[in-house]
Design brief:
2 helices, 86% helix, 0% strand, elongated, Antitoxin VbhA domain-containing protein
């Protein structure tokens, strides 16, 4: 995991923890969920791309 991904993961963890305390509006929680969804999709695509690249070199 690179530095940028680590920082994003840490930020999302803080947002998720804070949302459990009820300090976020529904809109903020929806936005955070959307960010997590797209971050997960981007991560999955990167893993798949790296897997395909690795298979080409093997």
């Amino acid at each position: 995991m690179n530095d940028l991904e680590s920082r994003r993961a840490a930020r999302e963890a803080r947002v998720t923890a804070a949302s459990r305390t009820g300090r976020h509006t529904t809109e903020e929680m929806a936005e955070a969920a959307m960010r997590r969804y797209f971050a997960e999709k981007a991560f999955q695509e990167r893993v798949e791309r790296e897997r395909r690249q690795h298979q080409k070199t093997v």
